[in-house]
Batch of 2 targets.
Target 1
Amino acid sequence: MTEQTDRPNFCSVGEWLKKIKDGEVAIPRFQRGKVWNDRNVAELLEALFQRRPVGTLLLLEYSHSADGKDRHTFSPHPIEGAPDLRTTHAKEEKYAQLQLVLDGQQRLTALWSVFNDNESNEKEFFVRVGKESSGNLQTGEVDFFAGEQKKSLRDPKTAWDRNLIPIWLLGEPGITRGKDDLKNWCQKATDNVADKCFDLLAEISGLSEKLRKRDISFYQLPIQTSRHDAIHAFIKTNESSVKVTRFDIAVAELENRKEQSLREMLRDIKIPSDRLDKFFGDDEDSRIPTIGELVLKISCLMTDECPTDKYYTADETIEVLTERWDEIVKGIDWTLQFFEREGIYDQKRLPSVVPLRVLPALHQYYPEKDTDLQSIFDRVIRKYIWQSFVTERYKRSAASLLHEDYKGLAKNLKENSQTKIQRLLKDSDDSPIMNRKQYPIPNVRELSNLQYPLVKPSSKNRLSRALLVMSLRSGALDFASGKPVGTSTQEHQYHHLFPQAFLKEEGRKEKEINHALNFALVSEITNNRLRAAPPAKYLKDRMDKQQCSENEIARRVESHLIPFAELNVHTGKKGNYEKFLKRRAEIFVQAMDQLCQGEGEM
């Protein structure tokens, strides 16, 4: 292997591609996955074509000892999309001649990806070319195409007519492309005209050779480097980069101090996958940093520190994270289940993420064996989350404020005493958010205001989402079918109770029409059947078509916390729309008041 010197080593693009294919370059387990976007990749390629600097890589020489233990305990993983390391190394030479990438993973991953002719890739990269006075090809910008454009440009003649050459065609023969791929492409691009094909083949071969010989420099830490120094080097080379988050640094620190992989812990987290999908997304790789950040914030709270990245790598945080991992996971799962019991079934319906950070840390005080105490505990939690959803407590500086509230809640909950816990159901000063005099719920005028109306529930507005959840947790029924509105918003749509076109004809402004109180969640079929007619008209149509009584339709409407009498009108004029909004606001305020006292168990 190359010895480390004070000067950088050099390796050509073609050599890097061969190293990746042969399993001589890998990434340590604490590294994150691919994060570069398509534009980052295109800019790297343009820099290579134009012989501009692309940065220096940092590698660590890897050793696998005879006793079967890795010297650094950094499990090596292949570059994304590259062959499995187990297939590129014989057992007796396990991971021989292997280098671990500490800085440069995104660049090498990008190179391997674009130089491989993989039709399953969503995007394909092309370089635009012209002719120099000497007759050689001159490269311009690098672009990428998807969908029908990509499909069209898979035809060599179509691509060449647009002066585009696929990047994979310029790769290393026998490594990332077949030896005859370039010849076949040129034949098709020139309609197999011999002279044109020969000239094009020579031109592209020259361009490919220049690109493949382009050097990318690297430094290599010797095999004697300690794991601490290797991790420290990773942190120092990455901490100033906008591409690396504090979570990435925390992963490396945990690897260094505890020899544990946080990413592997998160990948194996003991929470039902369907629950994780609903609250964190169904893509495992993208949700790992999200859940990782959450776990770090919970660990900070459990050490009585403010949950900010400043404390992610504190000794106490790392200690809690590793020693109380099962407890943290159990707390997250319990929190998600509590949300579901409150009618919050997924991320889109969660009004605020603040309780998701606080509740798992509070779960350590949950009275597992005392059912009476559990009931009071649950009421406190219900009051806390709804106060956080509907008041202005967390409008600004949420981290410091939630830390203050957590300390007050924990102070009383950890006593496991009915007297102590019940204090929180009153206007407690221990935890400011539990003091309703200090943080009151919105009043009717604020909710029904048309000058500064609440935006529709599909937005990320905290209060608008909270109103939607309140309407659904009361047992909302579909207007047409009479069946409960499902636990997922995916098959449902937001219906204007006073139709949009109807209110526009009456001269209403867009912001007034899209007031949060003018929406209900119904099935897609029902939404399509409800015409842009006066509410009284489409409600009457429902009665006639389904042979339902007015009482039945009223029951379905009111299950959404919608006042039937104020909705069942023929015009929005004469103050009818305002009366409807005010009456619905009154109903919501009543529901809020109950929830913010910890009542209203579903």
Target 2
Amino acid sequence: MTDISKIRNFSIVAHIDHGKSTLADRLIQSTGTVAARDMKEQMLDSMDIERERGITIKANSVRIDYKAKDGETYVLNLIDTPGHVDFAYEVSRSMRAVEGSLLVVDSTQGVEAQTLANVYQAIDANHEIVPVLNKIDLPASEPEKVCDQIEDVIGIDASGAILVSAKTGVGIPEVLEAIVTRLPAPKGDRNAPLKAMLVDSWYDAYLGVVVLIRVIDGVLKKGERIRMIATNAVYPVDRIGVFRPQMTVIDELGPGEIGFLTASIKQVADTAVGDTITHEKKGCEKALPGFKPSQPVVFCGLFPVDNAEFEDLRDAISKLSLNDASFSTEMETSAALGFGFRCGFLGLLHMEVIRDRLEREYDIDLITTAPSVVYHIHMRDGTVKELHNPADMPDLTFVDHIEEPRIKATILVPDEYLGDVLKLCQDRRGIQMDLTYAGSRAMVVYDLPLNEVVFDFYDRLKSVTKGYASFDYQMYGYREDFLVKMQILVNDEPVDALSTMVHRDRAENRGRQMVEKLKELIPQHMFKIPIQAAIGGRIIARETLSALRKDVTAKCYGGDVSRKRKLLDKQKAGKKKMRQFGKVEIPQQAFISALKMDD
């Protein structure tokens, strides 16, 4: 049993690459939580893809025992959170389970867009925040300037900021002391009925569903029967434990503690994140407020390259969704691509990560269709439909108007690149909302259509600012605009996977780019192939891919010209027939390249 005044729960928040996971490694190492021989880089990142890309995708927790300078031993529960905008949902969940945050800022880069977003989430959760300036071992480090920036931009006191180098271990003892002295202990009543928050859950092949919980009041012991308030399901608790990063079984969890339980739960879908767990009998009356469910914002189709692999893909997706409840799937069929799934993701990085995991962990070759967003279609009869796939667009005679999702984007950029960033946002139909300065950097706030951001906005932003801009966004609502569905026809056949929704003023430009690109990407056939972009029945752009020629008159030398004519006419008729019945093979690479637009 742990004395509640000796517990500290905290998370580490920061922008991408500012050193959260490395700082977590040093805290684990310096307290001897993990034996030196078991220590490795990114200790808390368990997925291969996290290690390879050097990013955190899932928030992970670890329990550290720390002997402070006052001679007391404290229990520190640390949650390492992702820094990327697509996984902001993971961050907001982790925040609710703890009382304080270490705000890590790279002392060479300063405050970035995602630093702001994550700090505001911590402030919303009423956290005590301790600023930590990382990477002070680098020659470009400017701690005083960054402290001023934290005070100007975020508005929290940075006079007590701790200077550390998570790589070399400088300043780590000061961080541990600050956690104990500056962060509050959790509050909770040991004798009240059990009330615990379900923070996260994932599937383990041996134990079933593992549930990460934070106990608020009461005590949870092994063998007790628990009830989930949201689903009203009752389970007997098989085991209780904590992560030191390895699972360690203990007898009970008291108020303020973070740990896990397993209870023969079969599916992750049975454990709603944010749910309240209590005892079956004498449970708590009032549930915790819980979290808003995550809303997918980007949709795309996933199809196996080989149709025979469809069943494997279905298995793989159902296994993946056990561990990631934030992406949604439904079956779909396409004339060109056969059977597949329409999947919804929290953002483009999330989509890439899921696609990589499907290809790598389950060894399936995939075709990914154009990413699209959810449009609201207002029909003439007053009903509103959600459109996830441009191919399902209803007949325009029944449509009154179409609304598209908008985002509020915050971009922090050095002054010399400001003009390029403003031009990029204007080109993408953005509306400027705010422009302020934080030191030598401009902070621009734009209202942008999500549709324009989904494709390659982030890549373009990085290239026009030479990588110095940082970008963060949140959903901002829907607005009506003049949108149309653009189809691509290859040899007069529409290709579902390439239909997109575009703004009417941009359609011709976009269509022309697309057909020119496809002309380069589709290999030549024995017959000529028209490639067209169309809106409704109107062709707005066309390119023709010429046929491969075979010289049929090679065997005629001399003689009458009518013999050659006859052979050429026969070839012409054959090509006409081939064009009528011939199938055009569009290579997988063409789909992906045609959708990445260069301005």
